[in-house]
Amino acid sequence: MKTIIEPFRIKVVEPIRLTTRSERLEFLRKADYNMFKLRAEDVLLDLLTDSGTSAMSSLQWSGIMRGDESYAGSPSFYRFERAVQEIFGFSQVIPTHQGRAAERILFSTLCRPGHVVPSNTHFDTTRANIEAAGAEAVDLPVPEGLVPAVPHPFKGNMDVERLQDLIARVGADSIPLCMLTVTNNTGGGQPVSMANIRAVSGVCRAHGIPLFVDACRFAENAYFIKLREEGYARKSVREIVREMFSYADGCTMSAKKDGLANIGGFLAMNDAALAQKERELLILTEGFPTYGGLAGRDLEAIAIGLEEVLEENYLEYRLASVRYLGQHISAGGVPIVQPPGGHAVYIDAAAFLPQVPPLQLPGQSLVCELYVEGGIRGVEVGTAMFGRRDPETGQETPAAMELVRLALPRRVYTQSHVDYMVEAILQVWERREGIGGFRFTYQAPTLRHFTAAYEPLYPVGG
Ligand code: F0G
């Protein structure tokens, strides 16, 4: 059969509310044109994030019932620990309430002022946590990763030569760890190849630098390796995952993505002495080491989700639905990061709206137009999110790319939802020439996109 179907049937439904265009314009104005300030019930198709938005399976819901809420030594923790140990191959498993808590604990244990932490591309919370520990976060993507229109099978790769140059320049002693984000979310949800993981690991090991993987979308990355990298077509996703992590010393994980859970995360590694220090910090702010800020029921849902996400018919459907959205809007002329990523399609807003300069936030214009047109909520991943403002001069530096991310929640939307998305996006594409820019009316000094207020410089909605 050539039709790839959703490999599940629907047991519980959640109604979504249709709104009119003029209602949406009003909601947008009230939210200061910031997608993070919209009420979710005013959104029809929510593509803001694939994080914590997965639909859980009947097995996961039964795990919720089985969850044991003992303060210490809960059987739910041991099931969770075993799942993580078996899948990733690390002996030390520390549960956290989500990915950024694992990041904070890892970086505050290892990083000091003057340190440098390289990555293919750090996610925004990862960068912020490294900077909060006083260290510098450095992105070293391969050059292909920064050119949206040029397809490449592994655009998420790290530039190994630049990693070597960095080590030569600052010295291995200044690099307490190296990170590798799979898939590379900020760079377009693009995978990292096994060859690249192996090469990065080789360089790190030669210099005694621990390698930690930001594992949020590890299963999607592994399936891309199976589909695209020579020698992996006949390996199981589980085997590919084991090999990926065999080159690393540990990982941080947000179970809100490929854990198929609504909350949770973990930190895992082999170094028992390091894990001991981290558990002390965990107790201080997250909780006792056998729950780490989660309920026993959450640990059950994650343990089951980590197994389900490795099912190959699930991964085939998952990547096919993202590819379907990407290919259909691209066939209509919409410029996207090619090829589509694992969890999201990234529209190149700079190419979509060439008349809007980066400092007038073309991605912000596009997310507003998609909401007005179809009630679709995407997220700007451009200058609003990653631009830098000099606190003294007020001078703005734009981001490397102006993207809009349309992230598909896992197991949530059907093909007709995706067809509707395609239609709405193409309608905005048709009237692109009438779209202008935005400016900030409020911005916080860090992670400004979450709380910013904006003002349009043109009539939104055409
Ligand atoms: N690393 C990556 C690559 C991520 O995408 C995220 C979260 C995190 C770390 C942090 O995990 O949210 O559980 O604390 N990304 C979400 C997103 C928020 O929308 O892409 P968290």
How would you describe this protein?
With 462 residues, the protein is α/β, with parallel strands linked by helices. The protein has helices at residues 21-30, 58-66, 75-88, 99-110, 124-132, 160-170, 194-206, 218-228, 237-246, 272-285, 296-308, 312-331, 349-352, 362-374, 383-386, 415-430; strands at 45-46, 92-96, 116-119, 136-139, 178-181, 211-214, 250-254, 265-269, 344-348, 376-377, 379-381, 388-389, 396-397, 403-407, 438-442, 453-456. The chain folds into two domains: 21-50 and 311-456, Aspartate Aminotransferase, domain 1, CATH 3.90.1150.10; 58-308, Type I PLP-dependent aspartate aminotransferase-like (Major domain) (Aspartate Aminotransferase, domain 2). The protein is 40% helix and 13% strand. The strands form six sheets. The chain has a five-stranded mixed β-sheet, sandwiched between helices. Ligand F0G binds next to helix 4 and helix 5. The site of ligand F0G has 15 residues, from helix 4 and helix 5.
